[in-house]
Amino acid sequence: MTGARPEQAYLSRDTDMSKTDATRAVIEGMVDGLNDHRIADIGEFFSEGFGWYGNQGCGTKRGLREFQENWQKPFQAAFGDKVCIDEARLYMGEWAAAFGRQEATHHGVLMGIEPTGKRVEIRYMDFWKVVDGKIVDNWVMVDFPHVMAQLGVDAFNGEGWEAFDRGDRVPPAP
Question: How far is CA 152 from CA 20, 113, 115, 144, 148, in A?
Fold first, then answer.
């Protein structure tokens, strides 16, 4: 690339590194809360007006109520016996990130797919910004095409680039 470069990492540039331990405590508590399937009191970890920014199929939620009504409740209606397993977490000041998987049973309608009773793996990545002990922003990527494939639906109609792969997907879990 020649010429001027776009500004990089402007959101995290001025993070207060002294907040790392406090950020870690919020994220660890929030993940425990999600694993306990808490909805009504999940605001313990999220600010009232936080932003939740998901990939296509997930949408954008503005505020705690939208997150509860338009993400948590539909997600729990589609998936039961759900457990969240962060495979890696990173903390840097007021920022945290994780990737991992949820293991769940498909027991409700998901994007038009009727319940199958199948146990599925739901891969994700999250980035959080924590201010004054609450999550104020959350960027999310949920691998719904992978979930759909486990339920017998190919989101890419046979045109996915997996055809180019050797077959090994991710490092094995311990």
Answer: 42, 9, 12, 12, 6
